[in-house]
């Protein structure tokens, strides 16, 4: 069995280690089983990487690691609001250089799935739509609406023409094999009635009219027009049966989950993800895409919401910084290589399914005398033994066993032999030397704009406006300001009064007569609205109210999501104890977009306004304050992060690059971090970690944002924090572990960067217990595992060992249970 396994995997690897030739046009078609390339059915294993969620400098290495992990295709959306931030002003620079990204994929010899949308959802701000589009008169998004369809048409055509111009479609000799129009419209179509149906048919006709020469897909859209391939999205898609004789495609296999401010760290166990993939192929699947393969970072204001965090790590096979996430990456890699080696039998063979009850099934594929078998156990509690073709097999609960010759068990999704890697943070610099500068609190004095020097472009109106329509979403921040006059004889003077602000702000900071009276933020309850109420002391004559309203990511999902109000929607009232009150909603409101410090460019590298920053009387735990410091670029290649523990909420810039919103004071829920059992259906809140800790403490600073020598870090802190606790750190491989069954291969690697295995902390062959970080020997283990592993691994960047009892002293452990557990330090 052992030798068979080794040669088998070696074969699988050679099969995959060729570069796809992209010179000649490829003919891409499909039938009821699979996508066909030049007439040949093709097994597609794809991974999502969203180009603006990393940097152009990171792309080649991300794509390479994805290829090494055994994906043959990269998928991305196209992000409209990143490319057309203002009407007819386009941006394809830096990490928005779509063509460069597509070429990087092609250069690695991988295929591309291009999901143009241009609605993308994707936890991306406003689902990818530019807010100016919503602000155009008479626009309703994602339905049969003239303004919307005209603009969607113009943008989509622009992208298609750009890609065609570079000859990137497979039909032109490029590597793009599929394109997508719209996105998950089936989830919401019922809310749009006949107009929705007209729209989706228009989408199909419009897409076809672009003549790209490769098929179009529509994901999660059961009523997709016949010219489109309807595909499945979800945590599991084995029970998805396409219509219209279409092949079974899975365009979003959620490899983990995203994080909101206040959420635990999402974690989808490798065993469960591999189970979902193996089952999909057991039941006739032929194309699947990991959403995400690399999640990355929501830089700047790109995160959707409300409340999508800055990290978009997604617990994907490549982590936020681009490091391989082990054992997930390695466990899936083994599965991918095995599946490729079975491609012809899986895609051309006939399948026979047998049901054994208790959720146990087998599938036999037969083609030209070759046979491949799957044993699938979807029982979430019981391991099940069946007699299959004359032999007994035990399949662990919630797992799939693959027998490439229908006799030998080569892969089981619940048996993880890949190494586990624990990444650690290393201090590079800190504490840092800070200077500070208060942000200006806007207010009106005596009814006139005496702060006209800072009230640039102030707008007056006798109404409360939706925040998006005033800011065009150019900033998170909008001031709503008003004043009212109280006569000396007014009965409300001297009474206990309450200021009441009904708002759809995500965060509200309120000032009365230029004094801060409170801050409040919305609960993450799906509604995101609240009533802010505080006692206020009215004075005779003029009183002023200043409300700083903030958005923390615009909605990206749901029917009519663009119509959800944002900002101070009102009413705004001064309420007397008897409930009567003064309604200020129709008062004259003065609007001021953004912050003073932002308009003055305090975060920019060249201090063009030469404003003073203070160092004496250093201020901490204070709201509305700017902090500035400098730090050195950490040596080496490891990813760089800022540890912002101790800070409240705000925005961080490094050398003028906005690295995103930070909010470490928003803690993850204290409960719901139980022991993780991979068995049973996964959901976004299962297996979470980090309960009660900051929902995001570390913030990625891509190396390409750094300079030789000193780097400038600027923080705008709006709640109050302690910058002296901020640290610059690097992320590196700490402990590595493996827990390999006899007959398999131990592979330990420090994952590059020239690092070597320095120490073996634990090694035991037999029936060692526990997991990485807490292994223990058992009574029957061999006595010499430590020296064997030390001599094989210490001082090496990588070591490989075929695990067999011949290597070790005798053990009394039962033959079927023997395994080798190792923990090492890089
Ligand atoms: C918007 O729709 C209204 C009502 O159908 C119409 O009167 C108005 O002219 C439209 N405005 C624009 C700019 O198309
Ligand atoms: C699969 O089954 C169909 C119908 O039973 C048969 O016509 C075909 O030859 C079979 N193909 C293979 C590869 O066995
Ligand atoms: C399989 O297991 C059954 C039940 O335990 C046993 O009776 C049978 O002999 C086994 N068959 C083989 C081939 O080992
Ligand atoms: C928002 O867009 C409108 C229409 O293009 C424009 O008149 C207005 O100045 C913009 N406001 C801001 C703050 O960008
Ligand atoms: C229905 C739904 O929420 N779909 C989303 C599934 O998850 C991915 C990422 O988490 C989104 O991009 C989909 O649109």
TrEMBL record:
Q: Which domain of life is it from?
A: Eukaryota
Q: Which GO terms describe its molecular function?
A: beta-galactosidase activity; carbohydrate binding
Q: Which InterPro entries match?
A: BetaGal_gal-bd, Galactose-bd-like_sf, GH, GHD, Gly_Hdrlase_35_cat, Glycoside_Hdrlase_35, Lectin_gal-bd_dom, Lectin_gal-bd_sf
Looking up PROSITE patterns in the UniProt record yields:
SUEL_LECTIN
Where does the SUEL-type lectin domain lie? Answer: 740-826
Give a yes or no for keyword Hydrolase in this entry.
yes
Q: Which residues form the signal peptide?
A: 1-25
Gene Ontology biological-process annotations: carbohydrate metabolic process
Reaction(s) catalysed by this chain, per the record, are: Hydrolysis of terminal non-reducing beta-D-galactose residues in beta-D-galactosides
Keyword annotations of the record: Glycosidase, Hydrolase, Signal
- Cite the EC number: 3.2.1.23
Q: Which family does it belong to?
A: Belongs to the glycosyl hydrolase 35 family.
Task: Quote the protein name from its UniProt record.
Answer: beta-galactosidase
Q: Which organism is it from?
A: Ipomoea batatas
What would be the name of the gene that encodes this protein?
Answer: bgal7
């Amino acid at each position: 069995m052992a030798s068979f396994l080794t040669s088998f995997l070696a074969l699988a690897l050679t099969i995959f280690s060729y570069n796809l030739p992209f010179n000649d046009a490829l003919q891409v078609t499909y039938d009821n089983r699979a996508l066909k390339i030049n007439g040949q059915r093709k097994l597609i294993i794809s991974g999502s990487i969203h180009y603006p969620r990393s940097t152009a400098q990171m792309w080649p290495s991300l794509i390479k690691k994805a290829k090494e992990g055994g994906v043959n295709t990269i998928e991305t959306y196209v992000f409209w609001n990143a490319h057309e931030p203002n009407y007819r002003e386009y941006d394809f620079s830096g990490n928005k250089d779509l063509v460069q990204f597509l070429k990087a994929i092609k250069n690695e010899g991988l295929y591309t799935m291009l999901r143009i949308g241009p609605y993308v959802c994707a936890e991306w701000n406003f689902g990818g739509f530019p807010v100016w589009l919503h602000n155009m008169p008479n626009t309703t998004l994602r339905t049969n609406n003239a303004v919307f369809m005209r603009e969607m048409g113009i943008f989509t055509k622009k992208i298609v023409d750009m890609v065609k111009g570079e000859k990137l479609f497979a039909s032109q000799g490029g590597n793009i094999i599929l394109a997508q129009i719209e996105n998950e419209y089936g989830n919401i179509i019922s809310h749009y009635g006949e107009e929705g149906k007209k729209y989706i048919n228009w989408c199909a006709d419009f897409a076809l009219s672009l003549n790209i020469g490769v098929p179009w897909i529509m994901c999660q859209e059961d009523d997709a027009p016949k010219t489109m391939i309807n595909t499945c999205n979800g945590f599991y898609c084995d029970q998805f049966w396409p219509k219209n004789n279409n092949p079974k495609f899975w365009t979003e296999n959620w490899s983990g989950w995203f994080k909101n401010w206040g959420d635990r760290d999402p974690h989808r166990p490798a065993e469960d993800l591999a189970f979902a993939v193996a089952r999909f192929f057991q039941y006739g699947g032929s194309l699947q895409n990991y959403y995400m393969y690399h999640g990355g970072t929501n830089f700047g204001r790109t995160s959707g919401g409300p409340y999508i965090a800055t990290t978009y790590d997604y617990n994907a096979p490549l982590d936020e910084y681009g490091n391989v996430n082990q054992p997930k990456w390695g466990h899936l890699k083994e599965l991918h290589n095995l599946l490729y080696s079975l491609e012809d039998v899986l895609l051309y063979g006939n399948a026979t399914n047998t049901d054994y009850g208790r959720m146990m099934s087998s599938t036999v594929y037969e083609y030209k005398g070759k046979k491949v078998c799957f044993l699938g156990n979807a029982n979430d509690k019981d391991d099940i033994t069946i007699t299959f073709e004359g032999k007994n097999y035990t399949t662990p609960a919630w797992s799939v066993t693959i027998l490439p010759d229908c006799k030998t068990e080569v892969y089981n999704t619940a048996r993880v032999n890949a190494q586990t890697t624990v990444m650690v943070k290393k201090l590079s610099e800190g504490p840092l030397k800070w200077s500070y500068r208060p942000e200006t609190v806007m207010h009106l004095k005596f009814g006139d704009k005496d702060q006209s020097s800072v009230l640039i472009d102030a707008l007056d109106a006798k109404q409360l406006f939706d925040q998006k329509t005033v800011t065009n979403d150019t900033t998170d921040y909008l001031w709503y300001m008003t004043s009212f006059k109280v006569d000396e004889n007014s009965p409300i003077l001297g009474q206990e009064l309450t200021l009441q602000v009904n708002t759809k702000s995500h965060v509200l900071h309120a000032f009365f007569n230029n004094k801060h009276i409170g801050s409040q933020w919305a609960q993450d309850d799906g509604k995101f609205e609240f009533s802010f109420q505080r006692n206020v002391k009215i004075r005779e004559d003029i009183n002023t109210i200043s409300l700083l309203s903030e958005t923390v990511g615009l909605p990206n999902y749901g029917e009519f999501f663009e119509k959800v109000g944002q900002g101070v929607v009102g009413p705004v009232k001064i309420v007397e104890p008897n409930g009567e009150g003064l309604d200020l909603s129709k008062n004259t409101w003065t609007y001021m977009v953004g912050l003073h410090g932002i308009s003055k460019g305090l975060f920019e590298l060249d201090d063009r306004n030469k404003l003073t920053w203070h160092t004496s009387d250093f201020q901490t735990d204070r709201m509305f304050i700017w902090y500035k410091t400098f730090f050195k670029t950490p040596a080496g290649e490891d990813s760089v992060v800022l540890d912002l523990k101790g800070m409240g909420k705000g925005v961080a810039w490094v050398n003028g690059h906005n690295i995103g919103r930070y909010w470490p004071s928003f803690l993850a829920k204290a409960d719901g971090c139980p022991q993780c059992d991979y068995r049973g259906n996964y959901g976004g809140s299962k297996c979470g970690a980090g309960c009660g800790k900051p929902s995001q403490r570390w913030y990625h600073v891509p190396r390409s944002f750094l300079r030789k020598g000193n780097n400038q870090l600027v923080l705008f802190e709006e709640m109050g924090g302690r910058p002296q606790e901020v640290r610059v750190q690097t992320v590196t491989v700490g402990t590595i572990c493996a827990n390999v069954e006899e007959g398999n291969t131990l592979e330990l690697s420090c994952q590059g960067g020239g690092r070597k295995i320095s120490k073996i902390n634990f090694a035991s062959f037999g029936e060692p217990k526990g997991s990485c970080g807490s292994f223990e020997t058992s009574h029957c283990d061999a006595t010499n595992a430590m020296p064997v592993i030390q001599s094989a691994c210490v001082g090496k960047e990588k070591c490989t060992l075929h695990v067999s009892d011949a290597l070790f002293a005798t053990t009394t452990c039962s033959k079927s249970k023997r395994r080798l557990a190792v923990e090492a330090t890089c």
